[in-house]
């Protein structure tokens, strides 16, 4: 019936009688339905949608249906959780996620090789520095973790027996690599 109403409101090229015949409803039933007042359930759903929207807006869009339902119960509004979820879904409201799912790599897809360095840098100590930063959620809030590694060091970061950082070529230079380009990447 709503399709017929939408068509009629848009002043489409087909008469209501033909549309009712195609949809399998009687024209008198359509006209009775179009002039009928909203049902008590429709009115209650509209009021519940408004209350749910207020709770959702107060939470700055963070709350989903379970929390909105719990808040409505605290306020004294009796409604089923699934009904609240349906009304929120119909209104286009959803909770803000806690984060995306973990990245999954396809078993057939291989990581791309590094194109910014030919690989000769891996043996050059103090030539190429690699850095990364990430955030970790903890019980006390967010923790930010940064790592800076010398790509020329072997796994474990040891220089070998009898070698110290002072014995490396170029010791005493700043370790941030500002303004320097690894030799393997120079043109």
What do you see in this structure?
The chain is α+β, with helices and mostly antiparallel strands and 187 residues long. It folds into 3 domains: 1-36; 38-97; 113-157 and 176-187, no CATH class. Helix content is 35%, strand content 11%. The chain is built from 6 helices and 2 strands; from the N terminus they run H-H-H-H-H-H-E-E. The chain has a two-stranded antiparallel ribbon with strand order 1-2. The longest helix is centred in the N-terminal third of the chain and has 19 residues, at 40-58. The radius of gyration is 33 Å and the shape is elongated.
Strands, helices and their partners?
Blueprint: H1 2-9, H2 16-23, H3 27-35, H4 40-58, H5 65-75, H6 81-91, E1 129-138, E2 141-150
Antiparallel strand pairs: 1-2
Helix pairs in contact: 4-5, 4-6, 5-6
